[in-house]
Write a structure and sequence with these properties.
2 domains; alpha+beta; Glutathione S-transferase Yfyf (Class Pi), Chain A, domain 2; 6% strand
């Protein structure tokens, strides 16, 4: 398998973490890709030009990250990252979606802050930061039910909280979300997460 890879992308990180958790990481070749550079976007197998994108051993191109995660889960025999059925399945997929939303809104804020101050929309930044804050509130409300499972919900939530810490060091969410903070500070020591910390980026690629 071949993964279009950027060390600054939290969505790529999710795929690498998923590969490590399923023991598939060693079967995945990484193709360094900067999705913000035209030379890497032009002719990219994902017409959207985004990373991650995974080419399977059968030559099928798969994107985006939730679809790649589903593929890896399938290759690993199923029921590893995505519980096969019941409440656990829907919680894992919903939490992945919620955490992906935190990532997407964080990237929107980051891109906006790259603009010159006179071209920047403070309203847009505030809107996206409110979305992120609501998502973190929702996670605090269910944090007592988070455990040690290595499903895609737990893993993506940890990746999203790391990304918030990286991009908003001023946002002291731990003070107001103590149950989530306790869970996160324990869970983020998992090997797959500790081994994949993101490199700071000038752009979120
Ligand atoms: N929904 C996508 C999001 C992927 C994404 O936004 N990737 C960013 C890097 S973090 C990217 O390639 N950005 C380039 C672009 O948006 O043109 C996924 O889950 O894979």
């Amino acid at each position: 398998m071949r993964l279009r890879y950027s060390p600054a992308s939290p969505f790529v990180r999710k795929v690498v973490v998923a590969a490590m958790e399923t023991g598939l990481d060693g079967r995945i070749e990484r193709i360094a890709t900067d999705p913000m550079k035209r030379k890497d976007r032009d002719g990219a197998p994902n017409p959207l030009g985004k990373v991650p994108s995974l080419e399977t051993d059968d030559g099928i191109e798969i994107y985006d990250s939730p679809v790649i995660v589903e593929y890896l889960d399938h290759v690993a025999g199923g029921n590893r990252l995505i519980p096969a059925s019941g409440r656990a399945r829907w919680d894992a997929l919903r939490r992945q979606a919620l955490a992906d939303g935190i990532l997407e809104n964080t990237i929107l804020v980051f891109i906006e802050t790259l603009r010159k101050p006179d071209r920047r929309s403070e309203n847009w930044i505030a809107h996206n930061r409110r979305v992120i804050a609501r998502a973190i509130d929702a996670l605090e409300a269910e944090a007592a039910g988070l455990g040690e499972a290595a499903d895609i919900g737990h893993l993506t939530v940890a990746i999203a909280l790391d990304f918030v810490d990286q991009h908003f060091p001023d946002q002291d969410w731990r003070a107001t979300h103590p149950t989530l903070a306790r869970w996160f500070d324990r869970y983020r020591t998992r090997l797959s997460l500790a081994a994949t910390r993101l490199e700071p980026a000038s752009a979120p690629g």
